[in-house]
Give the backbone structure.
Amino acid sequence: MPKLLVPAAGQTAAAETADYAMQVAKALNAEVVPLHVVRPGHSKEAGELALEYFQKSCEESDVPLQCEFREGLIVDQIIDFAEENDVDLIVIGASRGTIVDKWLSLDVRDNTMVPVLVIPYQMFD
């Protein structure tokens, strides 16, 4: 079964990307792996809320789910997880096209051999 890695930055970002990720997962008959990465010493609350949102969305869509939580540098953890776990596709939402989102999606895309699908922020309007 294909595996889709979906970085989850918080509840708002999860809400924006979950529906799109579910559509992709259903089309590919894939498992969704939402991953929240928190920097050392920072709160895990946003990540917990994001993962709960993905869990609910997967249950409603009848899509297999494997929630993951890591601590460290965001881009490094996304890439490491994808490569260590034979992820087939990384799905990243580019919320409103902010500089941080552009940096994140470009850094992930440019530093891994795993294909990266960036959801344009216009999809969330």
